[in-house]
Records
---
Amino acid sequence: MFEMKEISLNYREKTILQDISLSLNSGDFVTVIGENGCGKSTLLRCVAGLHQQTTGSIRFQQKCLKQWPIQALAKERAFVAQSNQVHFAFLTENLLKLARADQLETEQQSTLLICQLAEKLNISHLFGRDVRSLSGGERQRVFIAKALLQLLPNSNQKCTDYVYENKLLLLDEPTSALDFRFQKAMMDLVQEFCQQGLAVVCVSHDMNLVLPYATQVLMLAQGRCLAKGQAKDVITIANLSDCFGVTPKLIPQTGSVPYITH
Amino acid sequence: MYTDSLPVTLQAVLAQRQKKYERGIWLTAGLGLLLVVVGLQAGSVAQSSTEMFQLVLQKFTSQDLTHQQTIHWYIFSELRAPRMVMAIFVGALLAMSGCAMQGLVRNPLADPGLIGISAGAAAAAATTLALINHYPELELAGQYLIAASAFIGALLAVWIVLLVAKTPMGTAISSLILAGVAVNALATTHIGAISYMANDDALRQITYWTMGSLGGINWQKVLFVGAVGVPAIGVFLHLRKALNMLALGENEAQCMGLAVTKYKRLTLWLVAFSVALATALCGIIGFVGLVVPHIARSLFGADHRYLMPACGVLGAVLMLLADIISRALFPPLEIPIGIVTSAVGAPFFLYLLAKGKGQSSYV
């Protein structure tokens, strides 16, 4: 449902991304890893349609990404950025309501959805609070809730019954501000949504947390794809030292991706 | 249990809040209406309510008016009524422009003057005033020429600023503000140069114009402002959702399905158009665009769904109040309304800043 073919991106005669291909099906969880400044976030922004690639093609749901009307695209893919700034005193529920502003549904229906998702992400106690006064982790959860709400189709069903078939969620460091408990809870939740058909592209530095969930890993180095495939194939000492310039230790885990440590 | 009752509770809270804000907006509008009644009576020729009511009654029952009453009726219907309506339009347009501008640049300190609109208008108007003074044959079309040139000057300033701030990725807000500062400086210099060369008469007119005034407003001008101002207010209200999304940043807004470039451009031109319109007819009226959104935000919250109409109503109310003060303070002298809005607005703004220090509760 998402097909990216050999895209490159140049900015001011500098190559940011080169020949990157990625294909996603419903339910896929792709983790993008790589050193700081290797183009992970730029890649994510290309996938979101915020950057126009210089060469190559991106197709989303059998349609060229460029040709998507912006409003229709917003109902099919959502993006959670690394830093979430709110510039005025918006209350949590107002922010979440905004994600449903383009939907044709009653206030009651959108309120119901918001509450269901807020319960799921454990943010319903934040209702009535200024988003800017929330802690980093709380705000991150609110923004992830907002992204998920944006993708929910128009209905009054419970969101747990939803099929996120063909929808795409892009996460840029989604767990960076989350505490020990919510890191795990968030990833479990995202995986749950993946099982309902949601495709996820997640950029993260917390490899040990994210890799066990990944169905596909894309390793970037200086804007190029260094390795791609299943986690167990990509996470090798050779690849990791190529990518990060330091040689890590791998502790084998039974039935899972090896644990990466210094 | 809890999960089931939460949506009900939240919906109730939201509905209650909406009701509260709507009531607040209507109350403010009611206050405005009261001020209109007060404003019709205030001034160098004071009329009591009974007198006024009697006058209206007599007029509508086609009774003959005495000479004294005819003069009063003229003051009432041809001088005060149009300027009240003008105050409403100008106040609403300026305040909504300020609200839109602050939302667009995501900075509560922004006002329409920031990007050089008012200064551009003033520079063009000053040029025309000096020209009229130099070529007395232009005197006849004077007022219209000044209004037209102010309008063109304002739009020209915005056009320059937009041109400078244009990047392949859209309009860069930081360049927009910096370009605005430059255009402001340029326009101020231009006014300075003209003032330096102008004779006393022209200088006085230029100074008077830059202070803003609702004097000389007739029904013709009101009709004109109404014809273009009402659609402008409609577009401002249409912008509410876009401004809400833009408050989260441009990338976020785009990801949420907002055509950011289009709405940014629409907002800027709408603000330019509205401020140009107000400035062309009434001169420079400062601080309304800056202070009213602040007051409105402290009363109605930051959600533009309520903030925008609240700004419109509150702007109108404050402008009516300023107009009444300007006429009633030293009758028969009339203080330029720009002086009143700045003299009241600036200290009030300082107070707001001092009060909100450290907590920035609503901005």
Note: The first helix of chain B runs from residue 2 to 41.
---
Amino acid sequence: MRPVDTGGESDARLVLRARDGDRAAYETLVRRYLGSAYAVALAELADRGDAEDAVQDAFITALERLDDCRDPAAFGGWLRRIVRNRARSVRRRERIRDTEPLEHAGRAHSTRDPGRDLDRSEVRRRLESALATLSDVQRRVVLMHDLEGYRHREIAVELDIPEGTVRSHLFFARRALREQLGDAEQRGRNDG
Amino acid sequence: MDERVDLSALEPDETQRELLVAAVMFRASGELSRRAAADVNPIVLLSDWLRPALAAAAVVAALSASVLTQGELAHVEPGRGLTDALAVPAPVNEWLISDRAPTVADLLVALDEGTH
């Protein structure tokens, strides 16, 4: 999930305009990086509702700290770090609270949505359930690679683990997901 | 087994995207307004002031000229100079004509004449 093309204006120019309070410029940045920010948050939190909250908070924090963005051309990377930190902070808080299991949380949010596209909602629900069975690091690796489009080396740097370990986590995460999704599909066929 | 798993269903759909953008921009309004207000350039501010200030000065100058030409000077008798019309004390008039600086004694005399 790379940045969405929202016109030709560079990040650097948009950041400078947003620093002066230009609403349109900041909205363009939000639209451009919403998808990748969301993927980063989801990789940390696994819950869509929490991920959405973390994304919102991160965009507001980024705006408040926009003067600290030393390289406006690298706004995307800077923002993703804020999203990740924010998501981790939410995750720590959630752990302390020791709330409901992830798969239940996922279902709760699924039913909260209008669900115009039922097929998509169903696939999403299955994916969330399958992701909830992975370890934290496996989930992060597979989402960063297969959803965000990170390379192995980038994930290794980001998570501070060897590149070989990233490949290993990715392999086992994909296998587990396919098994989970395959089982769910099989159960669906049997029910039908 | 090494192919990507299609996780695109996890991405926010169009409606979710719009809701998220709207929520972020709503929360960002205060900070953007604060930044826009803080961004007033002093030169721009000065230029904003300059135009009405110049206009006001022009009005004052026009009124003053009007008063000087049609008011006090209208009563000036032919043959009298501007210094007479403006009631400039005679010693001061002399200093002006002779283009010299007054002495302390000159000033005392001029003040004395002015009070009488």
Note: The radius of gyration of chain A is 18 Å.
